[in-house]
Amino acid sequence: MIRKLLSFSTLALALGATAYAQAPAPAAAYPTKPIRLIVPFPPGGGTDILSRLVATKLTEGAKWTVVADNKAGAGGTIGIGEAVKAAPTGYDLVMGQKDNLVIGPWLYKNLSWDPTKDLTPVAHVAYTPVVIATSVNSKYKTLADVVNGAKAAPGTITYGSPGNGTSIHLAGHLFEQAAGVKLSHIPYKGSNPALMDALAGNVDLLVSSLPSAMGQIKAGKLRPLAVTSAKRSSSLPDVPTVAESGFKDFDVSTWYGVFAPAGTPAAVVTTVNAEINKLLATADMKAAIQAQGAEPEAMSPAQLGTLLKKEYTQWKGIVEASGAKIE
């Protein structure tokens, strides 16, 4: 009897060990290694500034290791393409915005991805108006001065933007339409070169995201003439909107959000969304974002997805009407 009991015990232990070995291992906590946040634009621009702020604050607050990685080119579509091709594990994220997700696909006809299908919305970060500015040494003191000058000499006033077909360029185009004037658009390869030429007086105006221009505005080297949002920026409360300057209902803003490759596990998306939204609720993060001329705004992944789909459809017509082409 004792021998039989021992045999049964041995068999039970063996079967138990086999079952344990075959059972799936519990899911590892996320994250267990550094996270790459792809920045689809060059250093120094609005997207880069906000991306590095998010990476830094997540590293400090959530104790994650988040590394910003610039992958610039083709209006931000190269960086998005890299994110689309990455493994959907949550360790490759990308900072998307209006230029590369909403406008780029209508300009670059050979893209192999669809932002509404090949990316997973994770977290909205901020929105910002476009600012129309000029050097402090410029003769243009107000937006009315620009309009009057453009009507007197059509096509002679130049404005620099971060590139042909960007949301910034199209904001300038929409302003020309609203004001009934003709300006000369000078496209640059990114925000920083356009900013440098505006400061040097090589272009009459700078049309820029507010985060890209905010440092030089604070330094007193750029004179902001108007912002393009429906209401004034909390960062520049004394600067009128384009609508207040005589062009009713003018409202153009851009937004920034974190996305992941399609197929990224919902649990990972929920975790990252919760951490970013937690950061956006802190006074420190709010102040840091507003210091760059942007406004923090938290959203659920579903809300960000709805925003993307709505603007993706809406801006198709704007791009086509502008005649913007990629050469």
What are the salient characteristics of this protein?
D-Maltodextrin-Binding Protein, domain 2; 10 strands; 327 residues; 10-stranded mixed beta sheet
Description:
This protein is an alpha/beta fold and 327 residues long. It has two domains: 35-127 and 254-322, Bordetella uptake gene, domain 1 (D-Maltodextrin-Binding Protein, domain 2, 3-Layer(aba) Sandwich); 129-227, Periplasmic binding protein-like II (D-Maltodextrin-Binding Protein, domain 2, 3-Layer(aba) Sandwich), CATH 3.40.190.10. The chain has helices spanning 2-22, 46-61, 77-85, 98-107, 143-152, 167-179, 191-200, 210-218, 266-280, 283-291, 301-322, and strands at 35-39, 66-70, 92-97, 119-135, 158-161, 184-187, 205-209, 222-227, 253-261, 295-296. Helix 6 links the parallel strand 5 and strand 6 (184-187). Helix 2 packs across helix 8 and helix 4 (98-107) packs across helix 11 (301-322). It starts with a helix and ends in a 5-residue tail after the last helix. Belongs to the UPF0065 (bug) family. Pfam families: TctC. InterPro entries: BUG (IPR005064), Bug_dom1 (IPR042100).
